[in-house]
Amino acid sequence: MSMAASIHHLTEPAIRCAIGALHLPAGSRGLDAGCGVGDHALWLAEAVSPDGHVTGIDISRDCLHRAQAISSGAHIENQLTLLRGDMNRLPFVDSAFDWAWCADALWIGPKSLGFPAERPWPVLNELARVVKPGGVLALLFWSNQLLLPGHPLLEGRLDATRAANYPYTEDSAPEIHIMRTLGWLRDAGLEKPKALTLVADAQAPLGEIDRDALAASFQMIWGRAQSELTADDWEEFQRLCQPESPDFILNLPDYYAFITYTLFYGHVPDLR
Predict the structure, then answer these.
(1) Over the stretch 167-211, which tens digit does the pLDDT of each residue have?
(2) Comparison of pLDDT for 80 and 111, the residue scoring more
(3) CATH number at residue 171
(4) Which candidate, 21, 18, 43, places its Cα nearest to that of 32?
């Protein structure tokens, strides 16, 4: 199982709640922009079944191969189409979809480092272009976490590193931070922008997949922070977050942690 699929297993309840909050009409046709390994596209297709359809688009061939395998295994080939493409230049006519979804894909950073955009508004305008008037455009982001119960000072110092907030840096404009997405939607002309935060939690005893997902999360968020920490803090992080450590925090019989996802959504204006 890929790291993305492992983490999605852990966060699936929160993501399904986010999908449910949109009240996507049964039988509607939607776009999953930046669909990655395809889990969200599958859950979106289930939400609009039996007559709905989801088109997933991603720039990564490897992700699309994994997404195709997930689609085939779920036997929903007729409800899901997967295409390679760039969300900056969507290969669809205007108003092609009833709604659009973009989850953990519109992170703002240098294109030279693989980020889709350096400013969110051109991508949002492109997403809004392919959604019918009155349709919903939704962005979902992993927005926070508490993963080291009993170690709030260490976790706070880890979270304060540039590595943990990448690609946001001291030089980044405040308005491009993901928690300003309501403003992104408003500036892109979407109506009635709203936000909702949902929680995915993990509690001992942990299954193998959840343990793998949490261990991967430790490294994904904080694994590059060594240069920004004291030697003692880095040693403590390694002691608590390495599976081979005798003090691996996931071995605690009372372990509890959570991850939050924040959903931002608005409606494409109907100018008739």
Answers:
(1) 998 889 999 999 999 999 999 999 999 999 999 999 999 999 999
(2) 80
(3) 3.40.50.150
(4) 43
